[in-house]
Amino acid sequence: MSAAFLFAPFFGIVAHAAVVHYPPASSTINNFTFSLDGSGSPGIFSSSATPDKLYGEYNWCNMPHVRDREYKTPSKDFVLQYVEVIQRHHKRTPYGSNTFFKEDVTWNCVGEGVLSGLKTSRGPGSDAADIQWQASTNPFNPWTTTVGPGFVGSTCQFPQITGEGLGDAITHGTDLRGVYAKRLGLGSRFDPSTSQIRVTNNVITSQVASGLVKGLFPQSTGIEVFVQAPAFDSLEPTYPCNKANSLKTTITTGNANWTNHLSASADLYAKLDSISGIATQDTGGWHVSFDHYYDNMSAKQCHAKTLPCNLNDTSSCVTQDMANTVYRLGNWEYSHQYRDAPESAQYSALKYGAWMLELKGHLQAKMNKSSKLKYVHNIGHDGSVSPLLGFLQISNMVWPGMGAEVVFELYEKSKQRDSEFFIRVLWGGQPMETSTPLGVLDMVPINNFFAYIDSMVGSGSELLAACNSN
Ligand SMILES: *[C@@H]1O[C@H](CO)[C@@H](O)[C@H](O)[C@H]1NC(C)=O
Ligand SMILES: *[C@@H]1O[C@H](CO)[C@@H](O)[C@H](O)[C@H]1NC(C)=O
Ligand SMILES: *[C@@H]1O[C@H](CO)[C@@H](O)[C@H](O)[C@H]1NC(C)=O
Ligand SMILES: *[C@@H]1O[C@H](CO)[C@@H](O)[C@H](O)[C@H]1NC(C)=O
Ligand SMILES: *[C@@H]1O[C@H](CO)[C@@H](O)[C@H](O)[C@H]1NC(C)=O
Hints:
Elements: H1 3-6, H2 32-37, E1 78-88, E2 114-116, E3 131-133, H3 163-184, E4 195-198, H4 204-216, H5 242-251, H6 256-264, H7 266-276, H8 291-302, H9 320-340, H10 344-367, E5 375-380, H11 382-392, E6 405-414, E7 419-427, E8 430-431, E9 444-445, H12 446-457, H13 460-468
Parallel strand pairs: 1-5, 4-5
Antiparallel strand pairs: 1-6, 2-3, 6-7, 7-8, 7-9
Helix pairs in contact: 3-4, 5-10, 8-9, 9-10, 10-11, 10-12, 10-13
The protein binds 2-acetamido-2-deoxy-beta-D-glucopyranose (5 copies).
Residues 102, 277, 310-312 line the site of one 2-acetamido-2-deoxy-beta-D-glucopyranose.
Protein backbone atom coordinates (compact mmCIF):
# COMPACT_ATOMS: atom_id res chain seq x y z
CA MET A 1 0.00 0.00 0.00
CA SER A 2 1.53 3.31 -0.98
CA ALA A 3 2.03 6.11 1.48
CA ALA A 4 -0.05 8.39 -0.72
CA PHE A 5 -2.98 6.01 -0.33
CA LEU A 6 -2.63 5.83 3.44
CA PHE A 7 -2.67 9.60 3.76
CA ALA A 8 -5.22 10.00 0.98
CA PRO A 9 -7.95 11.33 3.27
CA PHE A 10 -5.77 14.38 3.84
CA PHE A 11 -5.28 15.33 0.18
CA GLY A 12 -7.21 18.14 -1.34
CA ILE A 13 -9.04 19.11 1.81
CA VAL A 14 -8.10 21.49 4.59
CA ALA A 15 -5.16 20.04 6.50
CA HIS A 16 -6.45 18.14 9.49
CA ALA A 17 -4.33 16.44 12.10
CA ALA A 18 -4.92 12.79 12.94
CA VAL A 19 -1.77 11.64 14.68
CA VAL A 20 -0.92 7.95 14.42
CA HIS A 21 1.84 6.56 16.64
CA TYR A 22 4.05 4.03 14.82
CA PRO A 23 6.13 2.26 17.53
CA PRO A 24 9.92 2.21 17.01
CA ALA A 25 12.07 -0.83 16.27
CA SER A 26 13.33 -2.85 19.26
CA SER A 27 16.99 -2.36 20.07
CA THR A 28 19.31 -2.39 23.05
CA ILE A 29 18.53 1.34 23.45
CA ASN A 30 14.85 0.83 24.31
CA ASN A 31 15.39 -2.44 26.18
CA PHE A 32 15.23 -1.38 29.82
CA THR A 33 16.71 -4.64 31.13
CA PHE A 34 19.75 -4.10 28.97
CA SER A 35 19.97 -0.40 29.83
CA LEU A 36 20.12 -1.13 33.54
CA ASP A 37 21.98 -4.48 33.66
CA GLY A 38 23.81 -4.64 30.32
CA SER A 39 27.33 -3.42 29.75
CA GLY A 40 29.36 -0.93 27.75
CA SER A 41 28.51 2.56 26.53
CA PRO A 42 25.96 3.06 23.75
CA GLY A 43 28.58 4.70 21.50
CA ILE A 44 31.66 6.93 21.78
CA PHE A 45 31.75 9.25 24.82
CA SER A 46 35.46 9.95 25.14
CA SER A 47 36.46 12.16 22.19
CA SER A 48 35.10 14.17 19.26
CA ALA A 49 37.07 11.97 16.88
CA THR A 50 35.35 9.01 15.20
CA PRO A 51 37.67 6.81 13.11
CA ASP A 52 36.70 6.96 9.40
CA LYS A 53 35.81 3.28 9.27
CA LEU A 54 33.32 3.74 12.13
CA TYR A 55 31.92 7.08 10.89
CA GLY A 56 28.15 7.09 11.25
CA GLU A 57 28.27 5.44 14.69
CA TYR A 58 26.82 7.30 17.64
CA ASN A 59 29.38 9.69 19.10
CA TRP A 60 27.86 11.73 21.92
CA CYS A 61 30.76 14.24 21.77
CA ASN A 62 30.41 14.91 18.04
CA MET A 63 27.60 13.16 16.20
CA PRO A 64 28.04 12.08 12.55
CA HIS A 65 26.99 14.59 9.87
CA VAL A 66 26.98 14.96 6.09
CA ARG A 67 30.52 14.69 4.65
CA ASP A 68 31.91 14.16 1.15
CA ARG A 69 33.47 10.85 2.16
CA GLU A 70 30.14 9.13 2.95
CA TYR A 71 27.73 11.26 0.89
CA LYS A 72 25.57 9.38 -1.63
CA THR A 73 24.81 11.46 -4.73
CA PRO A 74 21.47 10.50 -6.27
CA SER A 75 21.08 9.77 -9.97
CA LYS A 76 21.49 12.69 -12.40
CA ASP A 77 17.71 12.81 -12.96
CA PHE A 78 17.38 14.49 -9.57
CA VAL A 79 18.54 18.10 -9.30
CA LEU A 80 19.17 19.46 -5.81
CA GLN A 81 17.22 22.72 -5.36
CA TYR A 82 17.18 23.48 -1.65
CA VAL A 83 18.78 22.27 1.58
CA GLU A 84 17.64 22.91 5.15
CA VAL A 85 19.87 21.74 7.99
CA ILE A 86 19.04 21.56 11.68
CA GLN A 87 21.66 20.62 14.22
CA ARG A 88 22.27 20.53 17.96
CA HIS A 89 25.04 22.84 19.18
CA HIS A 90 28.55 21.40 19.65
CA LYS A 91 30.23 20.34 22.86
CA ARG A 92 30.27 22.64 25.84
CA THR A 93 30.84 22.95 29.56
CA PRO A 94 28.01 21.71 31.80
CA TYR A 95 25.12 24.00 32.70
CA GLY A 96 25.59 26.07 35.87
CA SER A 97 21.96 25.90 36.97
CA ASN A 98 22.59 23.34 39.70
CA THR A 99 25.73 23.90 41.69
CA PHE A 100 25.30 21.27 44.38
CA PHE A 101 27.59 18.74 42.72
CA LYS A 102 30.83 19.75 44.37
CA GLU A 103 33.28 19.75 41.50
CA ASP A 104 36.82 18.48 41.70
CA VAL A 105 37.32 19.16 37.99
CA THR A 106 37.83 22.74 36.74
CA TRP A 107 37.22 24.27 33.32
CA ASN A 108 39.73 26.63 31.70
CA CYS A 109 38.47 29.19 29.17
CA VAL A 110 41.27 31.79 29.36
CA GLY A 111 41.41 33.43 25.91
CA GLU A 112 38.20 31.63 24.87
CA GLY A 113 35.70 34.24 25.98
CA VAL A 114 32.17 34.54 24.65
CA LEU A 115 31.70 37.41 22.17
CA SER A 116 29.36 40.21 23.17
CA GLY A 117 29.17 43.86 22.09
CA LEU A 118 27.42 45.74 19.32
CA LYS A 119 27.96 46.78 15.70
CA THR A 120 25.81 48.80 13.30
CA SER A 121 25.83 48.68 9.52
CA ARG A 122 25.96 52.51 9.41
CA GLY A 123 28.34 55.19 10.65
CA PRO A 124 31.32 54.89 12.95
CA GLY A 125 29.77 51.87 14.70
CA SER A 126 30.42 49.67 11.70
CA ASP A 127 33.87 48.67 12.88
CA ALA A 128 33.33 48.92 16.63
CA ALA A 129 35.47 46.48 18.62
CA ASP A 130 34.56 42.82 19.19
CA ILE A 131 34.24 42.25 22.94
CA GLN A 132 34.87 38.95 24.69
CA TRP A 133 33.62 38.00 28.15
CA GLN A 134 36.10 36.47 30.56
CA ALA A 135 34.41 34.79 33.54
CA SER A 136 36.04 35.98 36.78
CA THR A 137 35.75 35.65 40.55
CA ASN A 138 37.19 37.79 43.34
CA PRO A 139 37.84 36.40 46.85
CA PHE A 140 36.77 39.72 48.45
CA ASN A 141 33.23 39.11 47.15
CA PRO A 142 31.79 36.77 49.83
CA TRP A 143 29.06 35.41 47.54
CA THR A 144 31.62 33.85 45.22
CA THR A 145 31.93 30.78 47.42
CA THR A 146 28.23 30.48 48.31
CA VAL A 147 27.02 30.06 44.72
CA GLY A 148 28.96 26.85 44.40
CA PRO A 149 32.48 25.55 44.07
CA GLY A 150 31.89 24.84 40.37
CA PHE A 151 32.60 28.52 39.70
CA VAL A 152 35.77 28.77 41.75
CA GLY A 153 38.92 27.80 39.89
CA SER A 154 37.11 27.70 36.54
CA THR A 155 37.28 30.49 33.96
CA CYS A 156 34.37 29.48 31.71
CA GLN A 157 30.76 30.53 31.46
CA PHE A 158 28.43 27.70 32.51
CA PRO A 159 27.46 26.84 29.88
CA GLN A 160 29.65 27.90 26.99
CA ILE A 161 30.91 26.11 23.91
CA THR A 162 34.51 25.07 24.57
CA GLY A 163 37.47 25.76 22.28
CA GLU A 164 37.29 22.12 21.16
CA GLY A 165 33.55 22.44 20.53
CA LEU A 166 34.21 25.54 18.41
CA GLY A 167 36.75 23.50 16.42
CA ASP A 168 34.08 20.82 15.87
CA ALA A 169 31.67 23.52 14.62
CA ILE A 170 34.29 24.77 12.10
CA THR A 171 34.84 21.21 10.85
CA HIS A 172 31.07 20.73 10.61
CA GLY A 173 30.79 23.87 8.44
CA THR A 174 33.75 22.81 6.27
CA ASP A 175 32.23 19.35 5.74
CA LEU A 176 28.84 20.82 4.73
CA ARG A 177 30.60 23.22 2.38
CA GLY A 178 32.45 20.26 0.82
CA VAL A 179 29.13 18.64 -0.08
CA TYR A 180 26.74 21.50 -0.77
CA ALA A 181 28.76 24.50 -2.07
CA LYS A 182 29.31 22.94 -5.49
CA ARG A 183 25.87 21.29 -5.68
CA LEU A 184 23.98 24.48 -4.79
CA GLY A 185 26.45 27.04 -6.16
CA LEU A 186 27.16 28.67 -2.78
CA GLY A 187 29.98 31.23 -2.82
CA SER A 188 32.73 31.46 -0.21
CA ARG A 189 31.08 34.61 1.15
CA PHE A 190 27.72 34.42 2.95
CA ASP A 191 24.97 35.78 0.68
CA PRO A 192 21.76 36.60 2.61
CA SER A 193 19.68 36.43 -0.58
CA THR A 194 20.39 32.70 -0.96
CA SER A 195 21.39 31.53 2.54
CA GLN A 196 20.05 31.96 6.06
CA ILE A 197 21.35 30.95 9.46
CA ARG A 198 19.11 30.81 12.50
CA VAL A 199 19.89 30.44 16.20
CA THR A 200 17.92 30.30 19.48
CA ASN A 201 17.92 32.77 22.40
CA ASN A 202 20.46 30.57 24.17
CA VAL A 203 23.80 32.17 23.28
CA ILE A 204 25.61 28.84 22.93
CA THR A 205 23.92 28.42 19.54
CA SER A 206 25.46 31.73 18.36
CA GLN A 207 28.83 30.52 19.62
CA VAL A 208 28.43 27.51 17.33
CA ALA A 209 27.42 29.84 14.47
CA SER A 210 30.82 31.59 14.83
CA GLY A 211 32.52 28.29 14.01
CA LEU A 212 30.01 27.08 11.45
CA VAL A 213 30.29 30.27 9.34
CA LYS A 214 34.08 30.09 9.37
CA GLY A 215 33.90 26.63 7.80
CA LEU A 216 30.86 27.11 5.57
CA PHE A 217 31.52 30.64 4.25
CA PRO A 218 35.26 31.07 4.84
CA GLN A 219 35.43 34.62 3.39
CA SER A 220 32.79 35.99 5.79
CA THR A 221 33.58 37.23 9.27
CA GLY A 222 30.59 39.15 10.66
CA ILE A 223 27.10 38.14 9.54
CA GLU A 224 23.51 38.53 10.73
CA VAL A 225 21.64 35.44 11.88
CA PHE A 226 17.91 35.12 12.54
CA VAL A 227 16.42 34.63 16.00
CA GLN A 228 12.75 34.53 17.08
CA ALA A 229 11.58 36.00 20.40
CA PRO A 230 11.27 33.51 23.29
CA ALA A 231 7.49 34.03 23.35
CA PHE A 232 7.15 32.16 20.06
CA ASP A 233 10.54 30.69 19.11
CA SER A 234 9.82 27.50 17.18
CA LEU A 235 13.45 26.36 16.98
CA GLU A 236 14.43 25.93 20.64
CA PRO A 237 11.30 25.60 20.94
CA THR A 238 9.86 27.94 23.60
CA TYR A 239 6.34 28.71 22.38
CA PRO A 240 3.69 27.96 25.01
CA CYS A 241 1.82 24.67 24.62
CA ASN A 242 -0.22 23.48 27.60
CA LYS A 243 -1.28 20.29 25.94
CA ALA A 244 2.36 19.32 25.27
CA ASN A 245 3.17 19.96 28.93
CA SER A 246 0.37 17.74 30.13
CA LEU A 247 1.35 15.00 27.66
CA LYS A 248 4.90 15.15 29.00
CA THR A 249 3.53 14.44 32.47
CA THR A 250 1.50 11.53 31.09
CA ILE A 251 4.65 10.15 29.44
CA THR A 252 6.87 10.51 32.52
CA THR A 253 5.41 10.70 36.04
CA GLY A 254 2.12 9.26 34.76
CA ASN A 255 3.68 6.26 32.99
CA ALA A 256 4.49 3.00 34.78
CA ASN A 257 7.53 2.20 32.62
CA TRP A 258 8.96 5.61 33.46
CA THR A 259 8.37 5.48 37.21
CA ASN A 260 9.65 1.87 37.31
CA HIS A 261 12.88 2.87 35.59
CA LEU A 262 13.63 5.33 38.38
CA SER A 263 12.79 2.94 41.22
CA ALA A 264 14.69 0.08 39.57
CA SER A 265 17.75 2.36 39.41
CA ALA A 266 17.79 3.05 43.18
CA ASP A 267 21.10 1.24 43.78
CA LEU A 268 22.87 3.19 41.06
CA TYR A 269 21.40 6.46 42.36
CA ALA A 270 22.60 5.64 45.90
CA LYS A 271 26.17 5.11 44.65
CA LEU A 272 26.18 8.31 42.60
CA ASP A 273 24.62 10.38 45.40
CA SER A 274 27.22 9.19 47.92
CA ILE A 275 29.95 10.44 45.58
CA SER A 276 28.35 13.72 44.52
CA GLY A 277 26.86 14.62 47.91
CA ILE A 278 23.48 15.28 46.26
CA ALA A 279 20.54 14.56 48.57
CA THR A 280 18.27 11.68 47.56
CA GLN A 281 15.30 14.03 47.97
CA ASP A 282 16.93 16.90 46.06
CA THR A 283 14.90 19.64 44.40
CA GLY A 284 17.42 20.30 41.60
CA GLY A 285 16.13 17.58 39.30
CA TRP A 286 18.86 14.98 39.81
CA HIS A 287 16.34 12.23 40.59
CA VAL A 288 13.54 12.84 38.09
CA SER A 289 15.71 11.60 35.20
CA PHE A 290 19.38 10.81 34.57
CA ASP A 291 19.83 14.07 32.62
CA HIS A 292 21.98 15.90 35.19
CA TYR A 293 24.33 13.04 35.99
CA TYR A 294 24.57 12.20 32.29
CA ASP A 295 25.44 15.75 31.28
CA ASN A 296 27.88 16.25 34.12
CA MET A 297 29.87 13.10 33.31
CA SER A 298 29.68 13.18 29.53
CA ALA A 299 30.85 16.82 29.32
CA LYS A 300 33.93 15.83 31.31
CA GLN A 301 34.65 12.67 29.33
CA CYS A 302 34.21 14.43 25.98
CA HIS A 303 36.94 16.85 27.08
CA ALA A 304 39.27 14.06 28.30
CA LYS A 305 38.71 15.03 31.95
CA THR A 306 38.44 12.43 34.70
CA LEU A 307 35.12 11.25 36.13
CA PRO A 308 34.27 13.09 39.37
CA CYS A 309 35.32 11.95 42.87
CA ASN A 310 33.90 12.71 46.29
CA LEU A 311 35.42 15.94 47.57
CA ASN A 312 35.83 14.55 51.11
CA ASP A 313 37.17 11.19 49.98
CA THR A 314 39.04 11.37 46.70
CA SER A 315 39.31 7.57 46.56
CA SER A 316 35.54 7.34 46.04
CA CYS A 317 34.96 8.13 42.36
CA VAL A 318 32.39 7.50 39.65
CA THR A 319 33.58 4.39 37.76
CA GLN A 320 33.41 3.98 33.99
CA ASP A 321 30.81 1.22 34.52
CA MET A 322 28.57 3.60 36.47
CA ALA A 323 29.00 6.26 33.79
CA ASN A 324 28.21 3.77 31.00
CA THR A 325 25.05 2.69 32.81
CA VAL A 326 24.00 6.34 33.12
CA TYR A 327 24.65 6.75 29.36
CA ARG A 328 22.51 3.68 28.54
CA LEU A 329 19.71 4.86 30.84
CA GLY A 330 19.82 8.38 29.39
CA ASN A 331 19.34 7.00 25.91
CA TRP A 332 16.51 4.76 27.15
CA GLU A 333 14.83 7.88 28.58
CA TYR A 334 14.96 9.72 25.25
CA SER A 335 13.61 6.72 23.37
CA HIS A 336 10.79 6.39 25.89
CA GLN A 337 9.80 10.07 25.82
CA TYR A 338 10.03 10.64 22.08
CA ARG A 339 9.24 7.23 20.56
CA ASP A 340 8.16 4.35 22.80
CA ALA A 341 5.47 5.98 24.92
CA PRO A 342 2.13 5.79 23.08
CA GLU A 343 1.61 9.57 23.49
CA SER A 344 5.12 10.41 22.21
CA ALA A 345 4.04 11.10 18.61
CA GLN A 346 1.34 13.52 19.67
CA TYR A 347 3.72 15.16 22.13
CA SER A 348 6.37 15.63 19.42
CA ALA A 349 3.78 16.89 16.93
CA LEU A 350 2.75 19.68 19.33
CA LYS A 351 6.27 20.44 20.49
CA TYR A 352 7.78 20.71 17.00
CA GLY A 353 4.73 21.42 14.88
CA ALA A 354 5.50 25.12 14.41
CA TRP A 355 9.01 24.45 13.09
CA MET A 356 7.64 21.79 10.74
CA LEU A 357 5.07 24.26 9.39
CA GLU A 358 7.90 26.72 8.74
CA LEU A 359 9.90 24.01 6.96
CA LYS A 360 6.90 23.15 4.80
CA GLY A 361 6.53 26.86 3.95
CA HIS A 362 10.20 27.07 2.89
CA LEU A 363 9.83 24.01 0.66
CA GLN A 364 6.60 25.26 -0.91
CA ALA A 365 8.07 28.70 -1.55
CA LYS A 366 11.02 27.08 -3.30
CA MET A 367 8.73 24.85 -5.38
CA ASN A 368 6.54 27.73 -6.52
CA LYS A 369 9.66 29.84 -7.22
CA SER A 370 8.68 32.67 -4.88
CA SER A 371 11.90 32.12 -2.86
CA LYS A 372 15.52 32.38 -3.96
CA LEU A 373 16.79 30.67 -0.83
CA LYS A 374 19.01 27.67 -1.43
CA TYR A 375 20.45 26.93 1.99
CA VAL A 376 18.97 27.40 5.49
CA HIS A 377 20.81 26.30 8.63
CA ASN A 378 19.22 26.07 12.11
CA ILE A 379 21.33 25.70 15.26
CA GLY A 380 19.34 24.37 18.21
CA HIS A 381 19.43 21.93 21.09
CA ASP A 382 18.72 18.33 22.04
CA GLY A 383 15.28 19.74 22.89
CA SER A 384 14.97 20.71 19.20
CA VAL A 385 16.33 17.61 17.48
CA SER A 386 14.51 15.14 19.80
CA PRO A 387 10.93 16.25 19.07
CA LEU A 388 11.89 16.53 15.38
CA LEU A 389 12.96 12.85 15.44
CA GLY A 390 9.76 12.07 17.37
CA PHE A 391 7.72 13.97 14.78
CA LEU A 392 9.30 12.01 11.91
CA GLN A 393 8.99 8.79 14.02
CA ILE A 394 12.55 7.59 13.49
CA SER A 395 12.96 3.81 13.82
CA ASN A 396 15.83 3.88 16.32
CA MET A 397 15.68 6.81 18.70
CA VAL A 398 18.73 7.96 20.65
CA TRP A 399 19.56 10.99 22.75
CA PRO A 400 20.85 13.37 20.06
CA GLY A 401 24.47 14.14 20.99
CA MET A 402 26.61 17.20 20.29
CA GLY A 403 26.29 18.48 16.73
CA ALA A 404 23.53 15.92 15.90
CA GLU A 405 22.21 16.82 12.43
CA VAL A 406 19.12 16.31 10.28
CA VAL A 407 19.24 17.54 6.65
CA PHE A 408 16.21 18.06 4.39
CA GLU A 409 17.16 17.97 0.70
CA LEU A 410 14.59 19.07 -1.90
CA TYR A 411 15.11 17.57 -5.37
CA GLU A 412 13.45 18.35 -8.67
CA LYS A 413 13.04 15.71 -11.32
CA SER A 414 12.16 17.12 -14.71
CA LYS A 415 9.81 15.20 -16.91
CA GLN A 416 9.06 16.35 -20.41
CA ARG A 417 6.69 19.12 -19.38
CA ASP A 418 6.06 19.20 -15.67
CA SER A 419 8.49 18.76 -12.90
CA GLU A 420 8.11 16.69 -9.79
CA PHE A 421 9.65 17.28 -6.38
CA PHE A 422 11.08 14.76 -3.94
CA ILE A 423 12.55 14.96 -0.48
CA ARG A 424 15.46 13.11 1.06
CA VAL A 425 16.04 13.40 4.82
CA LEU A 426 19.51 12.60 6.17
CA TRP A 427 20.17 11.67 9.81
CA GLY A 428 23.85 11.44 10.70
CA GLY A 429 24.59 11.81 6.97
CA GLN A 430 22.40 8.91 5.71
CA PRO A 431 18.73 8.58 4.69
CA MET A 432 16.58 8.39 7.81
CA GLU A 433 14.69 5.21 8.55
CA THR A 434 11.25 5.83 10.03
CA SER A 435 8.54 3.54 11.42
CA THR A 436 5.88 5.41 9.39
CA PRO A 437 4.38 4.27 6.06
CA LEU A 438 6.92 6.64 4.43
CA GLY A 439 9.64 4.16 5.45
CA VAL A 440 13.17 5.31 4.61
CA LEU A 441 13.03 9.03 3.76
CA ASP A 442 14.92 8.65 0.51
CA MET A 443 13.33 10.47 -2.46
CA VAL A 444 9.83 10.56 -1.02
CA PRO A 445 7.37 12.34 -3.36
CA ILE A 446 6.94 15.75 -1.76
CA ASN A 447 3.15 15.52 -1.56
CA ASN A 448 3.39 12.35 0.53
CA PHE A 449 5.77 14.15 2.87
CA PHE A 450 3.43 17.14 3.12
CA ALA A 451 0.48 14.82 3.73
CA TYR A 452 2.40 13.25 6.61
CA ILE A 453 3.15 16.69 8.11
CA ASP A 454 -0.53 17.59 7.75
CA SER A 455 -1.57 14.35 9.46
CA MET A 456 0.68 15.20 12.41
CA VAL A 457 0.04 18.90 12.85
CA GLY A 458 -2.75 20.13 10.60
CA SER A 459 -2.85 23.86 9.94
CA GLY A 460 -1.31 26.60 12.06
CA SER A 461 -4.63 27.50 13.64
CA GLU A 462 -5.27 23.86 14.41
CA LEU A 463 -1.89 23.66 16.15
CA LEU A 464 -2.69 26.76 18.20
CA ALA A 465 -6.03 25.30 19.25
CA ALA A 466 -4.49 21.91 20.09
CA CYS A 467 -1.84 23.56 22.26
CA ASN A 468 -4.45 25.56 24.12
CA SER A 469 -6.78 22.60 24.69
CA ASN A 470 -7.26 21.24 28.27
C1 LIG B 1 16.64 -7.17 26.49
O1 LIG B 1 17.91 -7.35 27.05
C2 LIG B 1 18.02 -8.48 27.87
C3 LIG B 1 19.37 -8.41 28.58
O2 LIG B 1 20.41 -8.25 27.64
C4 LIG B 1 17.86 -9.72 27.01
O3 LIG B 1 17.95 -10.88 27.82
C5 LIG B 1 16.48 -9.65 26.34
O4 LIG B 1 16.34 -10.74 25.45
C6 LIG B 1 16.30 -8.35 25.59
N1 LIG B 1 14.92 -8.22 25.15
C7 LIG B 1 14.61 -8.03 23.89
C8 LIG B 1 13.16 -7.88 23.60
O5 LIG B 1 15.45 -7.96 23.01
C1 LIG C 1 27.39 19.41 36.95
O1 LIG C 1 28.01 19.88 38.11
C2 LIG C 1 28.31 21.27 38.11
C3 LIG C 1 29.10 21.67 39.31
O2 LIG C 1 28.41 21.47 40.50
C4 LIG C 1 27.02 22.02 38.08
O3 LIG C 1 27.29 23.39 38.03
C5 LIG C 1 26.26 21.60 36.86
O4 LIG C 1 25.00 22.18 36.89
C6 LIG C 1 26.10 20.11 36.77
N1 LIG C 1 25.52 19.80 35.49
C7 LIG C 1 24.24 19.60 35.32
C8 LIG C 1 23.79 19.33 33.95
O5 LIG C 1 23.46 19.61 36.23
C1 LIG D 1 5.70 -0.46 28.97
O1 LIG D 1 6.60 -1.15 28.13
C2 LIG D 1 6.07 -2.33 27.57
C3 LIG D 1 7.15 -3.06 26.80
O2 LIG D 1 8.23 -2.25 26.51
C4 LIG D 1 4.87 -1.99 26.69
O3 LIG D 1 4.32 -3.17 26.17
C5 LIG D 1 3.85 -1.27 27.55
O4 LIG D 1 2.78 -0.85 26.74
C6 LIG D 1 4.48 -0.04 28.20
N1 LIG D 1 3.53 0.59 29.09
C7 LIG D 1 3.32 1.90 29.13
C8 LIG D 1 2.34 2.38 30.13
O5 LIG D 1 3.90 2.68 28.41
C1 LIG E 1 31.74 16.57 52.85
O1 LIG E 1 31.60 16.59 54.26
C2 LIG E 1 30.79 17.66 54.73
C3 LIG E 1 30.85 17.64 56.27
O2 LIG E 1 30.47 16.35 56.72
C4 LIG E 1 29.36 17.49 54.21
O3 LIG E 1 28.57 18.56 54.63
C5 LIG E 1 29.42 17.49 52.69
O4 LIG E 1 28.13 17.26 52.15
C6 LIG E 1 30.36 16.42 52.18
N1 LIG E 1 30.50 16.55 50.74
C7 LIG E 1 30.30 15.53 49.93
C8 LIG E 1 30.49 15.83 48.47
O5 LIG E 1 30.00 14.41 50.29
C1 LIG F 1 4.32 30.05 -2.72
O1 LIG F 1 4.35 29.30 -1.51
C2 LIG F 1 4.42 30.11 -0.33
C3 LIG F 1 4.58 29.17 0.86
O2 LIG F 1 3.51 28.28 0.97
C4 LIG F 1 3.18 30.97 -0.25
O3 LIG F 1 3.25 31.78 0.92
C5 LIG F 1 3.09 31.82 -1.49
O4 LIG F 1 1.88 32.54 -1.46
C6 LIG F 1 3.14 30.99 -2.75
N1 LIG F 1 3.27 31.89 -3.89
C7 LIG F 1 2.68 31.64 -5.05
C8 LIG F 1 2.93 32.63 -6.13
O5 LIG F 1 1.95 30.67 -5.22
